[in-house]
Backbone:
């Protein structure tokens, strides 16, 4: 075969990815083999490949490729998530560019644009994963808005509603004024921000008295419906039963009493705005206060804001404060640090808002999911284990899940209203079934389809992705089908700890509710990818490399190795491009090693040298030892450690030692026995490296020998662990130290490697002579002579208590060496004198900084040691 001298990653990657897909190696159907299943965490359909995806999917591909080599029926299901908030925002922005306002479109018209956008841009990320080498079963690609997937979501909604677990409630919710939708509590990020505390005077009705309240939000005074004081607070006893007047709008509101008020905070008086604060809402319900919503859905003030109508809340905060100051109602302003909720998606500040929403009761649903991870007989393992505490905290403090979103893109809530009352609705999978239910509920047989109107809200995106491990195998619609029975529960889930609750916990909840089974056995939680300065990668910092450019520069295999060399489960990954360069360099090293073996001429007529025979036995023992270590790392999801063990085995032991020992002399052939064994070893190396570097390994594998599609590396057999000869490994380590000693002497004395040298040893260690042939070959020794007395006129070194001697006669020019050492001795003695002179100067020692004196004393000690060594070397030469 015509083998190129240089490895061309781009052409190799295209060639073998096409070959693998053409031969359907990634595709899985149920059979008699043990299944190994992974479902991809579906990336947003809007997404493009970033470093987090690269790490996550490299890990999944390593696991799936290894499972194939282990003979399992490996099935990796890919797909994308419809990401309702993110996608709708992108579609709205695109429509805006075309001069179209979303509000001018019907639901159907908007969805047409959304599908158009999804078909044009969706799936880009999946094509990018192919560039990384991901071996997903592309025939199984799913999208959370596929008809069958949506049908499963609707079926689950109806079922949970019928079980009394889904209900409609008028609640205070987290409102994202940018996305114009509610968010669940988990989608709100709380962060500390510097703001102001405004002290405002409210007049008391019918008197000249005032009371002062402190608020961070003066713009909300238009929604005030009471002032609250603590009944125990004697400072305000005179205000009991009285009324206050809200500044600017001059609305008269009651002064109420409640223990809820913290007498220490602010002024001890609290303004109550039930429409815009959850605690105020609770007070309002308790005291039956009026609820006045002063905001539009985009957080601008509505008509209750009087002259400030239409102003954004943050603008109104300043203008209202100015007005309060102008009318003498603003007493003072102080800076104040407070916690603000922001939207995880849009980063907008969350506005508490009252509205009718759909909720899922979580209290009972969550119990099996807590037991599954934290119980005595836990069925699901989290790696690293430390995340169990996070899981426990979330699950034990869970609140009902707000599952409705004020969006068009997503599964529309299957609730159908037949009247104007809040309870005038039925829940059904289709409008036809809804009509039957509505007729039965109302006893009105004349109702028609046109009398029904469907709830306009869509379901939270997570309400579809929590079914993912089941719905991709049609396990919700057809719970007894062959695929769900074969592939479920899945084996491993690889994801980020940031969605441990959003997604992982909810999939566990759904799994027990709908299959009475765990959805997966193990959850491997990767770290966040950060730059080498430990900053989170982000577009705004400009520190997130272009994933495809990295592949172009360093090869897909190089990037995969680079990512895993810097990765550790659950600990943040400090990504450095230099590691990708190291990955690429490792690939080149293996390619060059293969090229070297390819240049050898093989002969059947020569005997196998002793050095090759023992070296091959040693490498087999090293390989078996490494394989046990690699298996252990895989069992604990320490993929970086597994890769490092393979890296050292191939780079150091195979390339650095074995090939050096067995390679024939210049222009000489290699014996066939050694050659065949080396190539069999090379193939085993390729098998264990394949999950990490699939392209390079498949390429070399196919060059080593003509292969049929049934013999491709991707479906080869993972090597078996054999009994390990530990003794031979210990013997080699000793021999390696001896070889290192010989090389050091050669280097220091400039003895050319082509010149064979004499070698004697006093074997105090009784070390085994098995590796003498290897030592002789790699040291280029004339012979190894065992002696009982030191050899005169020889250079010497020790390994443990063994003493080794290299005679100098003929090896080096003794006269030149004596001259060189004498010159070095004279220089060092002169240097020592100057240092000692300085140290004998009392003024210097007393006046110089401590570290300067210490440095001079170290110079003195080093010079004395060097002089002793030089004198000893000279004595052996004379």
Residues:
């Amino acid at each position: 075969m015509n083998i190129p001298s240089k490895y061309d990653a781009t052409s190799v990657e295209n060639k073998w990815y096409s070959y693998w897909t053409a031969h359907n190696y990634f595709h899985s159907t149920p059979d008699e083999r043990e299944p190994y299943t992974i479902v991809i965490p579906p990336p947003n359909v809007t997404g493009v490949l970033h470093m987090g995806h690269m790490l996550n999917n490299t890990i999944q591909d390593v696991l799936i490729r290894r499972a194939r080599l282990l003979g399992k029926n490996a099935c990796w299901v890919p797909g994308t998530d419809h990401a309702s908030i993110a996608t709708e925002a992108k579609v709205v922005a695109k429509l805006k560019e075309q001069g179209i306002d979303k509000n001018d479109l019907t639901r159907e018209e908007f969805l047409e644009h959304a599908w158009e956008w999804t078909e044009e841009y969706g799936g880009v990320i999946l094509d990018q994963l192919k560039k990384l080498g991901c071996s997903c079963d592309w025939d199984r690609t799913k999208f959370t808005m596929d008809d069958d997937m949506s049908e499963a979501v609707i079926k689950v909604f109806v079922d949970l509603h019928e079980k009394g677990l889904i209900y409609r409630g008028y609640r205070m919710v987290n409102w994202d004024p940018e996305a114009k939708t509610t968010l669940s509590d988990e989608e709100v990020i709380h962060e500390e921000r510097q703001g102001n505390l405004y002290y405002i005077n409210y007049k008391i009705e019918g008197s000249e008295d005032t009371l002062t309240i402190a608020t961070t939000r003066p713009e909300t005074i238009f929604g005030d419906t009471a002032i609250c004081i603590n009944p125990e607070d004697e400072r305000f006893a005179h205000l009991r039963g009285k009324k206050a007047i809200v500044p600017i709008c001059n609305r008269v509101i009651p002064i109420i009493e409640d223990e809820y008020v913290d007498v220490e905070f602010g002024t001890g008086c609290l303004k109550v705005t039930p429409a815009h604060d959850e605690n105020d809402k609770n007070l309002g319900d308790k005291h039956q206060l009026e609820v006045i919503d002063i905001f539009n859905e985009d957080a601008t003030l509505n008509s209750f804001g009087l002259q400030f109508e239409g102003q954004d809340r943050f603008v109104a905060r300043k203008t209202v404060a100015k007005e309060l100051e102008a009318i003498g109602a603003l007493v003072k302003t102080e800076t104040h640090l407070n916690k603000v909720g922001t939207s995880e998606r849009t980063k907008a500040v969350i506005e508490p808002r009252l509205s009718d929403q759909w909720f899922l009761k979580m209290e009972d649903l969550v119990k099996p999911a807590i037991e599954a991870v934290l119980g005595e007989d836990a069925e699901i393992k989290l790696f690293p284990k430390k995340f169990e505490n996070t899981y426990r905290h979330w699950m034990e403090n869970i609140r009902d899940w707000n599952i409705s979103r004020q969006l068009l893109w997503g599964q529309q809530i299957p609730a159908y209203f037949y009247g104007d009352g809040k309870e005038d609705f039925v829940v059904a999978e289709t409008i036809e079934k809804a009509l039957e239910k509505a007729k039965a509920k109302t006893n009105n047989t004349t109702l028609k389809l046109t009398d029904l109107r469907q709830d306009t809200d869509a379901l939270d995106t997570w309400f579809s992705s929590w079914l993912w491990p089941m719905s991709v195998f049609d396990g919700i619609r057809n719970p007894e089908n062959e695929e769900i029975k074969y592939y479920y529960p899945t084996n491993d889930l690889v994801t980020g700890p940031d969605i441990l609750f959003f997604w992982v916990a909810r999939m566990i909840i759904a799994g027990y509710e709908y299959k009475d089974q765990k959805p997966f056995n193990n959850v491997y939680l990767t770290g966040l990818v950060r730059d080498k300065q430990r900053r989170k990668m982000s577009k705004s910092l400009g520190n997130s490399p272009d994933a495809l450019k990295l592949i172009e520069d360093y090869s897909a295999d190089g990037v995969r190795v680079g990512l895993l060399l810097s990765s550790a489960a659950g600990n943040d990954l400090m990504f450095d491009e230099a590691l990708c360069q190291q990955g690429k360099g490792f690939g080149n090293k293996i390619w060059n090693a293969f090229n070297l073996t390819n240049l050898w001429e093989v002969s059947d007529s020569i005997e196998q040298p002793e050095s090759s025979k023992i070296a091959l036995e040693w490498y087999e023992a090293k390989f078996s030892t490494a394989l046990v270590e690699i298996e252990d790392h895989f069992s604990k999801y320490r993929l970086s450690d597994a890769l490092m063990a393979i890296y050292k085995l191939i780079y150091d032991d195979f390339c650095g030692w074995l090939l050096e020992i067995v390679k024939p002399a210049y222009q000489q052939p290699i014996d066939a026995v050694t050659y065949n064994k080396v190539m069999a070893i090379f193939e085993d190396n390729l098998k264990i490296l394949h999950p990490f570097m699939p392209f390079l390994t498949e390429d070399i594998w196919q060059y080593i020998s003509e292969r049929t599609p049934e013999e491709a590396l991707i479906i080869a057999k993972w090597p078996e662990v054999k009994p390990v000869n530990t003794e031979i490994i210990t013997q080699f380590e000793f021999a390696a130290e001896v070889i290192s000693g010989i090389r050091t002497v050669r280097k220091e004395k400039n003895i050319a490697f082509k010149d064979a040298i004499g070698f004697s040893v006093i074997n105090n260690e009784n070390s085994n002579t098995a590796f003498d042939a290897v030592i002789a070959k790699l040291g280029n020794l004339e012979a190894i002579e065992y002696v009982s007395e030191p050899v005169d006129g020889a250079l010497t070194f020790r390994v443990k208590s063994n003493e080794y001697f290299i005679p100098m006669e003929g090896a080096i020019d003794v006269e030149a060496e004596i001259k060189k050492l004498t010159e070095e001795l004279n220089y060092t003695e002169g240097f020592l004198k100057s240092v000692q002179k300085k140290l004998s100067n009392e003024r210097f020692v007393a006046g110089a900084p401590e570290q300067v004196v210490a440095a001079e004393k170290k110079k003195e000690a080093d010079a004395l040691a060097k002089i002793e060594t030089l004198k000893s070397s000279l004595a052996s030469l004379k």
